[in-house]
Amino acid sequence: MTRVYGSGGTRVVALDDVTVAFPSGSWTAVMGPSGSGKSTLLHIAGGLEKVTSGQVLVDGQDINDASEAELTGLRRTKVGFVFQNFNLLGSLTAEQNVAMPLKLAGRRPSRLEVQAVLTQVGLGDRLSHKPRELSGGQQQRVAIARALVTKPTVLLADEPTGALDSNAARTVLGMLRSMVNDGGQTIAMVTHDPMAAASADQVLFLSDGRVVDDMVRPSA
Amino acid sequence: MTRVYGSGGTRVVALDDVTVAFPSGSWTAVMGPSGSGKSTLLHIAGGLEKVTSGQVLVDGQDINDASEAELTGLRRTKVGFVFQNFNLLGSLTAEQNVAMPLKLAGRRPSRLEVQAVLTQVGLGDRLSHKPRELSGGQQQRVAIARALVTKPTVLLADEPTGALDSNAARTVLGMLRSMVNDGGQTIAMVTHDPMAAASADQVLFLSDGRVVDDMVRPSA
Ligand SMILES: Nc1ncnc2c1ncn2[C@@H]1O[C@H](COP(=O)(O)OP(=O)(O)OP(=O)(O)O)[C@@H](O)[C@H]1O
Ligand SMILES: Nc1ncnc2c1ncn2[C@@H]1O[C@H](COP(=O)(O)OP(=O)(O)OP(=O)(O)O)[C@@H](O)[C@H]1O
Ligand SMILES: [Mg+2]
Ligand SMILES: [Mg+2]
């Protein structure tokens, strides 16, 4: 697949004839320099952006031709997304932000379920705080809890430990690992942190919009 | 100094009787778990927030009693700030965002000056891109360029390499080091990255709003 932004003077080839696969039930890390196309790759894999040319197959179906309604359905049930800039709703509390995807999927959110996932990321005592009453790392953990609450088959996470100290990062990475091992979770995670990449089963390296290397962990 | 947020059920003591000094002409790193008070400390040092009790001395003057006009003057000329969430203006290009502090300080921004600092952070070819046309790491580097363009005596940087790959981070840290060594720059930098902390002259550790440790680099 290829993804191009703009035209003329500000034309940028974000992804240049890239072919990658995120195997089901396994954890893939994506690394590469700033501006190399990592976020773009994740947005396309999650149906948030269209490709300029090429195919995007999810469970065998090409989602690039899917209708907006089909894509919304996909995003609400199959795919959980942790955005690089968190994308929390400023007027809602941590609890309401995490409950939102459940409401959007037409389910009645149970307080217990929402509180359980916030406690898992270490924020059980912050349910009623709004994003501006939380530190950067706390906001990021709310964003992680929100992506996991619908138990999506695929988790797409864009630098999910970027704002976390090493202890908080280890907690989050441990959670993800047990989801892969015990629950067959599929994960694609962008990261700049070698410790986070070391938790994955394979690592892809992007540079200037191309895949330049990949590594499989011996134990994977 | 002490800083408390909220009251009753959501009362949080962000900083608890903290005494720290950021020596002039030297580089201090601040580390600590997510939610330990690092950003709050930086906001107070830069006159962006008031303390609940205690003093904040900049060049011998307690800025906690300063008027809004005095604080604005301080922020426009003496202090450069790199925010944890970048705080770029979405409707402006990279070049316009970087020129903004010069305009606010009443100076006519020279294109050459603005382009030079953007080139220094590796974005000489992105002058006319708006924040949403830039990757996370590129946006962070625009925020760094914007904080440096007025050549402030004190730079307060909140996880300035958080969204950068290790090469881009090394470039930024190298720039800051030569500003300290050659220009007598004073820097206070929050970071979770041990490589970034290793570039500083001393490191403070915060936990639950208190200073729990500090380390001075042998060569400092
Ligand atoms: N406006 C606010 N209202 C209420 N609580 C706040 C507010 N701002 C910060 N806090 C709380 O104060 C504490 C310190 O926050 P601060 O942003 O300084 O943390 P931090 O050390 O920078 O964390 P991180 O590494 O996650 O960025 C946190 O527990 C946070 O939830
Ligand atoms: N909407 C857009 N318009 C124009 N260019 C864009 C747009 N979005 C991204 N780009 C460009 O596409 C390239 C890839 O961006 P992407 O966000 O995927 O990078 P990244 O690898 O995630 O970087 P980072 O590590 O800094 O987050 C960058 O050069 C960026 O400037
Ligand atoms: Mg990115
Ligand atoms: Mg912070």
Q: Could you explain how this protein is built, in words?
A:
The structure is a homodimer of 220-residue chains. Chain A is α/β, with parallel strands linked by helices. Chain A is 34% helix and 20% strand. Chain A has helices spanning 38-45, 68-77, 94-104, 111-120, 136-148, 166-183, 194-197, and strands spanning 3-5, 12-15, 27-31, 57-58, 61-62, 79-82, 154-158, 186-190, 202-207, 210-216. In chain A, helix 4 (111-120) crosses helix 5 (136-148). The mean pLDDT of chain A is 93. The structure holds adenosine-5'-triphosphate (ATP) (2 copies) and magnesium ion (2 copies). One adenosine-5'-triphosphate (ATP) sits between chains B (5-6, 12, 14, 32, 34-40, 84) and A (132-138, 163). One adenosine-5'-triphosphate sits between chains A (5-6, 12, 14, 32, 34-40, 84) and B (132-138, 163).
